[in-house]
Write a structure and sequence with these properties.
This protein is an alpha+beta fold. It is built from 2 helices and 5 strands.
């Protein structure tokens, strides 16, 4: 789902990319997790950005938490297409890069 060039740029910025590899955008993906980005800061706080397919929508979630305290999941938006959700996923990763030093 995430293009190779974008994936490489994310990995260069120390994001781990977990992609379910639904390459045919004309196929409706199964419900559930489609893409996850995550990274951990030097102080042990981790961020995960996740795109789920739920019903006929694509939902972006973020999980932020310290390894010892668990996660705090927040819904960051619902999108009609996977492309819109992925664009917001990439934008959110850039925002977190500006917020944290890893």
């Amino acid at each position: 789902m995430i293009e190779a060039q974008t994936r490489a740029a994310l990995q260069e910025r120390q994001w781990v990319v977990v992609d379910k590899h639904v390459n045919d955008v004309n196929v409706v993906p199964p419900e559930g997790l489609l893409v996850e980005l995550w990274k951990q800061s030097a102080n042990g706080v981790a961020i995960a950005l996740l795109v789920y397919h739920e019903g006929d929508q694509f939902v972006l979630y973020k999980d932020v938490g310290h390894a010892a305290s668990g996660n705090n999941r927040t819904n960051c938006g619902t999108f009609p297409t996977i492309n819109a959700a992925l664009q917001q996923l990439i934008a959110a990763s850039c925002s977190w890069d500006d917020t944290w030093e890893t």
